[in-house]
Amino acid sequence: xxxxxxxxxxxxxxxxxxxxxxxxxxxxxxxxxxxxxxxxxxxxxxxxxxxxxxxxxxxxxxxxxxxxxxxxxxxxxxxxxxxxxxxxxxxxxxxxxxxxxxxxxxxxxxxxxxxxxxxxxxxxxxxxxxxxxxxxxxxxxxxxxxxxxxxxxxxxxxxxxxxxxxxxxxxxxxxxxxxxxxxxxxxxxxxxxxxxxxxxxxxxxxxxxxxxxxxxxxxxxxxxxxxxxxxxxxxxxxxxxxxxxxxxxxxxxxxxxxxxxxxxxxxxxxxxxxxxxxxxxxxxxxxxxxxxxxxxxxxxxxxxxxxxxxxxxxxxxxxxxxxxxxxxxxxxxxxxxxxxxxxxxxxxxxxxxxxxxxxxxxxxxxxxxxxxxxxxxxxxxxxxxxxxxxxxxxxxxxxxxxxxxxxxxxxxxxxxxxxxxxxxxxxxxxxxxxxxxxxxxxxxxxxxxxxxxxxxxxxxxxxxxxx
Length: 467
Hints:
Elements: H1 25-31, E1 75-80, E2 85-92, E3 97-104, H2 106-112, H3 117-139, E4 148-154, H4 158-174, E5 179-183, H5 184-195, E6 203-208, E7 213-220, E8 223-229, H6 235-245, H7 254-262, H8 287-299, H9 313-348, E9 354-358, H10 365-377, E10 381-383, H11 387-390, H12 394-406, E11 434-435, H13 455-466
Parallel strand pairs: 1-4, 4-5, 6-9, 8-11, 9-10
Antiparallel strand pairs: 1-2, 2-3, 6-7, 7-8
Helix pairs in contact: 3-4, 5-12, 6-7, 6-8, 6-9, 7-9, 8-9, 9-10
């Protein structure tokens, strides 16, 4: 397949080290027979494509009736375009990753100093067809071999979400495939169950990325209690802005750039204040820390227009001290919130054994090491997906689709001739779980305008309608 320069970073990402074999594509081709998965009757309870009122009792367990299906029969295509990466993957029901393709917008990030929604949408539109086709080709399957198509419908940037949803619906409609709308943050959570097969509900999860900070208690599939969230900026946003102000190379994103430079600096050299210590909840805030960093940079006359590669030895040392001090405090904020969230979660579910840490920032080795100390102190185990499955990817979407498909949670194939101006169900602001009473923020109100009912409340209402 010829790939344009726009797709120069398209490749099959290195597979993670899993407790079960992820067969290489080279080995699959000569030995695997033509795949003809058996599809179940189309029976949808449509939890992902309907809205309802909030669940009045988020701590009540949700009854689930599972549809029994042989794992090897399922083959799902996952599509992800919620922000700045165009991703697709093909995954079997037994967890075998047949392909994983990501087209990065790193050059755009470096050019604009962050995500520019319109530019990101155009970049998605240019490559989405090639990304999906590459995923199918690498998996050695065609659309007729698929059992279903899973796609992220929120949360995220509306312009970007639309590109992936449109592609997924066109594919599903043309080939008469069920379609599964996936919650982006649930996908980050559940991908841990693909790499760690012993991970059973209930468990805790800390989801950290450029747009999200979320602490949840996962009681069951689609049943989540929100223990804490960000009231303003997420940690990934703080990393990216700090990297930009320090003149670092954003083509790698801010997290890896800050982590690398921080190794050269003194983390105790600048006494940044740890956010929200006066608020005894599990919510996050990084806006104030960003302001502290910006003022520290200005006081040292650091010019972001001068790349770190051209900085003098003294200038580089100052930048490294800021990076190290910022990272220490940013992660201390995570640690403190996790400590309290573990206490709360164990009151609700004393059987919890694991804390999952996922999302793009979970690729940071310093973050992992510090949080590992927190969970060990509380006699828990840390579960982190490999870096290629922490950042946005199609594998997590496909796997989440598989988990819900087995429960009968999918929608029938869309019309094959859906008009171009069709209004898609996009959920840019979509909570994952119901808010824990003690977790309501005492700080300034979180933005709630145009917020969709949570995934948990939607699924519970759908199941109640079946009774």
